[in-house]
Specification:
The protein is built from three helices and no strands. With 78 residues, it is an all-alpha fold. The chain has one domain. α1 (2-10) crosses α2 (12-53) and α2 packs antiparallel against α3 (58-77). The radius of gyration is 20 Å and the shape is rod-shaped.
Length: 78
């Protein structure tokens, strides 16, 4: 928190904007790294979901794959 206060004292408007932009960029980088790490697991799970659900319905199997990736994205964000 001290770095935030030091950052404000130098040039309030530009420095605060730069501070928040840097925090947002680092947050997106962390989320992207987590998603890339989880991607192979989600591919394996989606293949299994597609194989099992396609025994009953092709459309439902496709929705299951989309659901796996949507749920995986939510898990990565949280």
């Amino acid at each position: 928190m001290q770095e935030f206060h030091d950052y404000i004292l130098k040039n309030p408007i530009l420095k605060v904007w730069d501070f928040f932009v840097d925090k947002i960029k680092s947050g997106f980088a962390d989320i992207a790294a987590d998603y890339i790490t989880a991607f192979p697991i989600m591919v394996g799970v989606s293949i299994a979901v597609y194989a099992l659900v396609s025994m009953f319905s092709s459309k439902l199997a496709k929705l299951g794959v989309v659901g796996v990736f949507a749920y995986g994205a939510l898990v990565v964000i949280a």
